[in-house]
């Protein structure tokens, strides 16, 4: 993949939503992606039964410091148990303690070398079949939706319509309050791009994060997975 972007088809308003700064480099985006994914895995390995969410966030901060991150661009989100049903914008209920058979997810937004990494994944402590199935379903659904984007070059709107259909077919509820977003050289927020699920053109490679958050139909179990869309 080159450092150059192919403008999305559409009007000037659509094109403006994929603007990047003069420092933007696709290879640096890929590096930020990889580093953030590594951080998620290291934090997950450090989280132990008996910890509270607040303690897990402290561990996450320390790991990022040790990895020499530049800064965080969104708060560290770590959800345990029933709090896995909560979206990014919702506060956790209480400071839950991780149990012996439990589920949790991590969502990090970290700046490395001036570029924004964003990664999230769900992990299970123990062998509870519903929790294991939920965590895997979020990853599986992400893969199906990502494949659909690659093969059809559909709009962001159509992408989340497809995600909702496939989630239902798989037996899970997709949370459509979470619909992906832009990333770029820091800070992407100046471009006011809105959600991926509202983007009327085919999202360009290396600029958009696909977010998948699902829930069990009857139990207080949720899962989250996100990654950068890259061809």
Give a description of the structure.
By secondary structure, the chain is α+β, with helices and mostly antiparallel strands. It is built from five helices and seven strands; from the N terminus they run H-H-H-E-E-E-H-H-E-E-E-E. It has helices at 12-16, 26-46, 53-66, 129-152, 156-170; strands spanning 71-80, 102-112, 115-125, 173-174, 181-182, 208-215, 222-228. The strands form two sheets. Strands 4, 5, 6 and 7 form a four-stranded antiparallel sheet that branches. It has a three-stranded antiparallel sheet with strand order 1-2-3. Helix 4 (129-152) packs antiparallel against helix 5. The radius of gyration is 17 Å and the shape is globular. The N and C termini lie close together (8 Å).
Defining key terms:
231 residues; alpha+beta; four-stranded antiparallel β-sheet; three-stranded antiparallel β-sheet; globular
């Amino acid at each position: 993949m080159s450092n150059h972007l192919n403008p999305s088809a559409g009007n000037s308003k659509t094109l403006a939503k994929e603007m990047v700064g003069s420092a933007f480099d696709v290879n640096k985006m890929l590096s930020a992606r990889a580093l953030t994914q590594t951080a998620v895995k290291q934090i997950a390995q450090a989280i132990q039964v008996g910890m509270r969410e607040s303690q897990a966030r402290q561990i996450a901060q320390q790991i990022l410091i040790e990895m020499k991150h530049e800064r965080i661009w969104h708060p560290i989100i770590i959800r345990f148990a029933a709090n896995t049903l909560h979206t990014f914008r919702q506060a956790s209920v209480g400071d839950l303690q991780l149990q012996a058979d439990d589920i949790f997810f991590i969502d990090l937004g970290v700046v490395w070398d001036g570029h924004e990494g964003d990664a999230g994944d769900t992990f299970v402590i123990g062998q509870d079949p519903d929790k294991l199935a939920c965590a895997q379903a979020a990853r599986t659904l992400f893969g199906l939706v990502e494949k659909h984007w690659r093969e059809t070059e559909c709009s962001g709107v159509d992408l989340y319509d497809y995600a909702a259909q496939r989630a239902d077919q798989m037996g899970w509820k997709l949370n459509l309050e979470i619909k992906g977003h832009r990333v770029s050289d820091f800070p992407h927020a100046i471009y006011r791009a809105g959600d991926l699920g509202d983007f009327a053109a085919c999202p360009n490679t290396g600029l958009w994060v696909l977010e998948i958050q699902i829930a069990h139909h009857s139990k207080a179990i949720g899962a989250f997975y996100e990654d950068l869309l890259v061809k």
